[in-house]
Write a structure and sequence with these properties.
The structure is a single chain. This protein has 18 helices and two strands. The chain is mainly α. Among the domains are: about 250 residues, Na+/H+ antiporter like domain (Na+/H+ antiporter like fold); about 45 residues. A two-stranded antiparallel ribbon has the order 1-2. A hairpin with a 2-residue loop joins strand 1 and strand 2. Helix 4 packs antiparallel against helix 13, helix 15 packs antiparallel against helix 16 and helix 15 runs parallel beside helix 18. It is globular.
Length: about 450
């Protein structure tokens, strides 16, 4: 295939960049760094003012007005949670969470990694508004965690990547439930009932065979998400619910697809050609048939997940980081970091996650209730526990829901960033060391 100049200098390098699994973590980390630098520069006031700019949508008297920061957290992050929902459904239907035997260890690790951090936090913040932050250290940032794994290189066992992914997905389920149950404001039952109607429409549409993703977007955003936004239940929950209504079945099975594709390719090969770059009408018709057949061989769920993943990884999460990671370091940093909120989050992530994830997993393996995944050793498990302590995106998000006091919000950011950076470095070093253990000793 002859490549154009624009392919060589722009398209191909961009595709290689976006297909590199480590790049999303690097972009996210860069966004955090930029937010920290700008929020402590002469442009700090402009930085904070930007996110408080009001932005309105609607018509006539029906207008929703929120700050840009709220639109990012309620709107853009809804797309993030929508992709999380798609991943959850895919894993439950045909992934690691489908087989109960494979799912036991990461599920138990995830539960331990949620309960122990919350308990440690509450030991240090048992009353007042500060106690609302117990959900913050429960979260795991899968983008950062997997990004660090891919930075280590090809020596990382595939089983470790699968274990950490399954753990993070189970953790996401817990985070969604925590947000829905414990971090929901006063409920407008009429709006919630309206959302229920739209949810019912989406479910019925799936059952009767509607597969048009634009249709689901219109009903999901214009109906379900908007109703939840007005109801008081956090709008990101609507995104997860909408994701579970996206069809996960194909119109054409693998065998039929293969036969039809072979037939159409042969038909295209025999079609009359011309001596110009344009294809003939017959060739154009065959190519359209190939496109339709290929589309029917892929589930709408997978098409959406594949299409939205780059948007989430390289646009939405970096924007979220830019708007939420800015911390003013000009004040008394020691006092901020030494606050019960910051220490509770820091210890909840660094100690709680490691104790919960590694401790319970190691106990189950030692008791021979489950087997350590093939290719992993105990050090890999310990390294994964530290990577699970990278709370960043989800922790910052829950922190914004948990606290109304700006002081608590700043203290939470100190704890989250400090723990996430330290956990990432320790996890990186442990897994690099684990990879040096001879293969014959991997399960010892």
């Amino acid at each position: 295939m002859k490549k154009t100049l624009i392919d060589k200098i722009l398209i191909d390098p961009l595709q290689r960049f976006m297909n590199n699994s480590a790049m999303s973590g690097i972009v996210l980390f860069s966004s955090v760094f930029i937010a920290l630098v700008v929020s402590n520069s002469p442009w700090a006031a402009a930085y904070h003012h930007l996110w408080e700019t009001d932005f309105s949508i609607g018509f006539g008297e029906h207008i929703i007005q929120k700050s840009l920061h709220h639109w990012i957290n309620d709107g853009l992050m809804a797309v993030f949670f929508f992709v999380v929902g798609l991943e959850l459904k895919r894993e439950i239907i045909g992934g690691e969470l489908k087989n109960p035997k494979n799912a036991v260890l990461p599920l138990v690790a995830a539960v331990g990694g949620m309960l122990v951090p919350a308990g440690i936090y509450l030991l240090m913040n048992s009353s007042g508004e500060a106690s609302n932050g117990w959900g913050i250290p429960m979260a795991t940032d899968i983008a950062f965690a997997l990004g660090i794994l891919y930075l280590i290189g090809d020596k990382v066992p595939l089983s470790l990547k699968i274990f950490l992914t399954a753990l993070a997905i189970a953790d996401d389920i817990g985070a969604v439930l925590v947000i829905a149950i414990f971090y929901t404001s006063q409920i407008d039952w009429v709006s919630l009932a309206t959302g229920g109607v739209f949810m019912t429409v989406l479910i019925i549409s799936n059952l009767v065979g509607v597969r048009n993703t634009i249709y689901y977007a219109i009903i999901g955003i214009g109906g379900l998400w908007l109703a939840f936004l007005m109801s008081g239940v956090h709008a990101t929950i609507a995104a997860v619910l909408a994701a579970f209504t996206i069809p996960a079945n194909v119109k054409i099975g693998e065998k039929t697809f293969s036969e039809k594709l072979d037939f159409l390719v042969e038909k295209f090969r025999k079609a009359k050609t011309n001596d110009v770059p344009l294809v003939t009408y017959e060739q154009s018709h065959i190519l359209e048939e190939i496109r339709v057949v290929s589309k029917h061989a892929l589930t709408p769920l997978q098409r959406l997940e594949h299409a939205l993943h780059p948007l989430v990884a390289f646009v939405i999460m970096p924007i979220f980081a830019l708007s939420n990671a800015g911390i003013d370091l000009s004040g008394d940093i020691i006092a901020q970091f030494a606050s019960p909120v910051a220490i509770g989050i820091f210890l909840g992530l660094i100690l709680g996650k490691v104790i919960g994830v590694f401790g319970l997993s190691y106990l189950m393996v030692k008791m021979k209730w489950v087997n350590l995944p093939e290719g992993m050793n105990v050090l890999h498990l310990l390294g994964a526990a530290f990577l699970a302590a990278i709370g960043f995106t989800m922790s910052l998000f829950i922190g914004g829901l948990a606290f109304t006091d700006p002081l608590f919000q700043e203290q939470a950011k100190f704890g989250i960033l400090g723990a996430s950076i330290l956990a990432g470095v320790i996890g990186f070093l442990i897994i690099r060391k684990a990879n040096k253990i001879p293969i014959q000793n991997k399960l010892n």
